[in-house]
Design goal:
Elements lengths: L3 E4 L10 H13 L3 H13 L2 H4 L2 H14 L4 H11 L5 H4 L6 E6 L7 H10 L4 E5 L6 H4 L1 H14 L1
Parallel strand pairs: 1-2, 2-3
Length: 156
């Protein structure tokens, strides 16, 4: 048997203000140095204060910021356009392996109730909410995240 772990995501982006939110992302990405500006504007919401202030968090941010210097804002804007039609809700009913959906307790991008939709859409899907984590749950709480992943693998 195999399984899948998904983290910090939902089944779709069809909430009422989705078009407006994605348009604001695109505005930033399409500006000069947009990918870096978007990271700067959202970093606080991506990771907990403890992680952001840690040596690992500062190193991750610096690395991510450096890499974004080579990323096309136009490419990210095109991806954002695709997000408006992204919806795997019905397809998830056909998943035939155990799925563990992991959410950060304080994630504002993909709150636990959004991640719970993934677990609820898969037969036998399960939700785990990781305390004291935001969107980057695997980086903020690697011990807990890895424990969950290893538990899923042990079932396979």
């Amino acid at each position: 048997m195999t399984g899948a772990l998904v983290a910090s995501t939902g089944t779709n982006l069809t909430f009422p203000a989705a078009e407006q939110v994605i348009a604001s992302w695109k505005d930033i990405w399409l500006a000069p140095d947009g990918p870096r500006k978007r990271l700067e504007a959202t970093w606080e919401g991506l990771a907990s204060p403890a992680y952001r202030d840690s040596p690992a968090g500062r190193a991750f941010y610096a690395s991510w910021r450096r890499l974004l210097g080579d990323v096309s804002g136009q490419s990210l804007a095109a991806v954002a356009d695709g997000l408006l039609s992204f919806d795997v809700t019905e397809a998830l009913a056909g998943v035939g392996v155990p799925v563990l959906a992991v959410a950060g307790q304080h994630d504002r991008l993909a709150p636990p109730q959004m991640v719970e939709q993934v677990a609820a859409s898969v037969p036998g899907g399960r939700l785990e909410v990781v305390e004291d984590a935001q969107h980057l749950v695997n980086l903020e709480r690697p011990d807990r995240f890895n424990e969950l992943l290893l538990g899923l693998l042990a079932q396979a």
